Amino acid sequence: MRLLLTEPFAASWKDKDPFEEVENLQGEVFREIEARRTLCFIFSDKRYFVKIHYGVGWIEIIKNLSCFRLPVIGAINEIQAIQRLEQLNIETMKIAGYGWKGLNPARQRSFIITEELTDTISLEDYCEGCCESKPEFRLKYALIKKVADISRRMHDNGINHRDFYLCHFLIKKSQSIKGSPSGALKLFLIDLHRAQLRRKTPLRWRLKDIASLYFSVMNIGLTQKDFYRFMSFYSGKSLKKCLTDVDGFWRKVEIKGQRLWQKKLRKDDKIE
């Protein structure tokens, strides 16, 4: 068993089973599936999030491995990803506690507690307002550059997100107001439970992340110049070199992003 608890959990749960204490937490359930539950709760007058993993079972593990994907078997993925992002000075969640136990990967129990990121909204929610009221150019430019920088540093250091959408970036509300950004621009990258860590990020996983991001920004009023800016910031190359790369990376991003968009439209049509 591995366990780390910061205050106030370390003192409050002393001589208690932390896994039982986590199960007894009460609050707002954000997501609940068979193998995982995400809960927002208040502890000692402060808000936290906890993700509790119950083990995915051998069927799910074998299914993922048969598709050449590493299965997510617990909280360790998110713990390691947060720690790695912190080393890279990429803003993310702050761990307040974690634990895991059990040698059987199919039945391993684990949890991670993170502090609430206060005074923030998702970039997805912020950008919905941009369609009606265009942001000040310097703010939009800074946001594109920041997202590209986070994407590049993450991928250059062997991390891929696997759920790389605009909703998983949080921005301080004080920096999302109309007008010039005040102070250093901060974006927080969250929801890292499916992240993968390697020495080097394979091209196909870079492509999946960037195509997912492209899909999530297709309907927020960005211009072609905005996309070109991102391409140049992310690659560290001139636009001419981006458009003439022999591997056709950006063309593949566009194709994959468009497929995701068409899939969304088909799903929306079925719901209606």
Labels describing this entry:
272 residues; alpha+beta; Phosphorylase Kinase, domain 1; Transferase(Phosphotransferase), domain 1; 2 domains; 6-stranded antiparallel β-sheet; 3-stranded antiparallel β-sheet; 42% helix; globular
Q: Could you describe the 3D structure shown?
A:
There is one protein chain. The termini are far apart. Mean pLDDT is 88; it is low at 179-183. This protein has a six-stranded antiparallel beta sheet. It has a three-stranded antiparallel beta sheet with strand order 7-9-10. Helix content is 42%, strand content 20%. It contains ten helices and eleven strands. Helix 6 (137-156) runs parallel beside helix 8 and helix 7 crosses helix 10 (249-271). The radius of gyration is 20 Å and the shape is globular. The chain has helices at 9-12, 18-23, 58-66, 76-87, 123-132, 137-156, 203-216, 224-235, 239-243, 249-271, and strands at residues 2-5, 27-33, 36-43, 46-53, 95-101, 109-115, 120-122, 159-160, 169-172, 187-189, 196-197. The chain has 272 residues and is α+β, with helices and mostly antiparallel strands. A hairpin with a 2-residue loop joins strand 3 (36-43) and strand 4. It has two domains: 2-115, Phosphorylase Kinase, domain 1 (2-Layer Sandwich), CATH 3.30.200; 120-271, Transferase(Phosphotransferase), domain 1 (Orthogonal Bundle).
